[in-house]
Amino acid sequence: MDMKLTEFSLWAFKLELSLARKFTLFSRCVCAHFERHFDPIETDGVYRVVVKLCGPDERVGTTELSSSVIKYYKTFDFDYFEGLNIIAKKRFLLDALYSSLISLCDMEGWPKSPFHEAYEMVVRENFVNLYTIKRKLSRNKSMSAELVGSHDEEAFNCFIVIKDNDGKELLNEHLFSEEPDEFLFNARIGDIRWGDKTTVRYQSKDKKELGLFDIGDVTSD
Fold first, then answer.
1. How far apart are CA 160 and CA 149, in angstroms?
2. pLDDT (tens digit, 9 = 90+) per residue, 53-63?
């Protein structure tokens, strides 16, 4: 069955539960950044890769396939990792993910260029995972309102940003912070709607108004 590969995770599956979750939250900001720049490829029934990180293990370099997920076993030096600074930790994680995926390319016959391009983009952006979630033009198309997400190792922060046609910021307001757990922060991301020429409503998924932003004081439009 043809399927597109879109998701990647690093699992410290031998760590104690609380430490494993802490590791997962840290690693997700790297994996999510990689996913954002990855151009999905067609696979034979695989949509997700889980790299299972461990010390010496007879399964290193082998794979398991279940429910359209490939699990790949990879050696990882956790003691060395813990001694690194934040950026070096992210680079170490990205390298572990990338080398695992290149090995899988050889095993599965996948093209390597989409993985290389995503890797290069994460490095080029210096591991800053800042991106536009939604963008809405005003009715006269003279301005845009955006929901912007910042996903790092400590938190996910969401902002509303309004710009004119020249890209000048007219408003930048923080909406909420959440633990960097995608299940939690994705549930909190709402929608934006232009009310009139100068007002934007931020509302929850169930249409409840959570904020009203008026830029009438900073624009004559």
1. 9
2. 999 999 999 99
